[in-house]
């Protein structure tokens, strides 16, 4: 049976990896609705652009008329919702787009999905799924000895980004509880891998190390994140779509808690090895800079529910995943050159100048 998925935000980092992975299975057809903000990049999807099973539509998830029309035309069996403003530092400088897309946009999608789902046959209604892709940041910050976040950890978002994602999670939950819409939510830890926009720590450090530029580390560099290779995250989403229980939430993580400074030092070693410079270690470029306001100290995910109930497990180790990722950024000059021009340069200049 054909799976017809409406993906939102599929031109971004995780969405494009998800589409490429799912398109390898011939039973999937995918429509990708993406506004193409600074973070959306159709280059990521060049290899499937000509495939009859793939359709791209440029548009805003908040455009209810467009969403309603797409649902009617494409008749999807599932909606997988990635579209969001996703960078914490940008949410601190300007939260409005985060409210518009992450909160109001998700609300618009839920309303249109509810109307569409309500008009399906009983069989199609029971098959339909709305998968909402969310983050561990909704749970706030952990102390050094706290247990990792579980699905029952109370929400305590600290940044405007996290608060906007938490709002969207609550709306998704309510649409299941009140209207019966078969929603599922995944809350995932920090992803890394190919196609990540280099405003985020790992690609930023790889490219600055390559170019001999300062490597900005916020605060004391001891904030801890739990890293997951993006393809493992995409497999987790596909697993939840296939086997998850409607109304449930699933925490996804890599069991890879590391202080930022360790990640930065590992990248320095990998770049030194793969792109030897003038003999000095890239570690000499490490520069401690002003901390992010309200910077969450530690995230850690307890992913035992999805492992136990759905049988998902990450395949990549942090070592092998970082090696692949550094190699990808060093080899894909055209992709890097295309995304690091224009407005990207302006963001870097503004953000790191204070
Ligand atoms: P991204 O910023 O790389 O991509 C976001 C995509 O959404 C872009 O293609 C952009 O054009 C599109 N978009 C933005 N606003 C839109 C709108 N109004 N209408 C339609 N499309 C719009 O983000 P990402 O890192 O790929 O994250 C995808 C999702 O996963 C987000 O919901 C994010 O909160 C969540 N998430 C990310 C991570 C991570 O480490 N990157 C971890 C956990 C969860
Ligand atoms: O935890 C999941 C979240 O991970 C996702 O929901 C977000 O969409 C995603 O952007 C990411 O958020 P973070 O804020 O954790 O990621 P970022 O790459 O911006 O930062 C990772 C850590 O590195 C964080 O502690 C801040 C620090 N950092 C970041 C940058 C950009 C630096 O020290 N220097 C930097 O220049």
Keywords:
single chain; 354 residues; alpha/beta; Rossmann fold; 7-stranded parallel beta sheet; 3-stranded mixed beta sheet; 12 strands; 17% strand; globular; binds nicotinamide-adenine-dinucleotide; binds 2'deoxy-thymidine-5'-diphospho-alpha-D-glucose
Plain-language structure description:
With about 350 residues, the protein is α/β, with parallel strands linked by helices. It has a domain at about 5-190 and about 230-255 and about 300-315: 3-Layer(aba) Sandwich (Rossmann fold), CATH 3.40.50.720. About 45% of the residues lie in helices and about 15% in strands. It has helices at about 15-25, 65-75, 90-95, 95-120, 120-125, 160-180, 200-210, 230-245, 260-275, 305-310, 320-330, 335-340, 345-350; strands at about 5-10, 30-35, 55-60, 80, 130-135, 185-190, 190, 215-220, 225-230, 250, 255-260, 285-290. Strands 3-2-1-4-5-6-10 form a 7-stranded parallel β-sheet, with helices on both faces. The chain has a 3-stranded mixed β-sheet with strand order 7-9-11. A two-stranded parallel ribbon has the order 8-12. Helix 1 (about 15-25) links the parallel strand 1 (about 5-10) and strand 2. Helix 7 packs across helix 11 (about 320-330). The mean pLDDT is about 95. The structure holds nicotinamide-adenine-dinucleotide and 2'deoxy-thymidine-5'-diphospho-alpha-D-glucose. 2'deoxy-thymidine-5'-diphospho-alpha-D-glucose (DAU) binds next to helix 7 and strand 8.
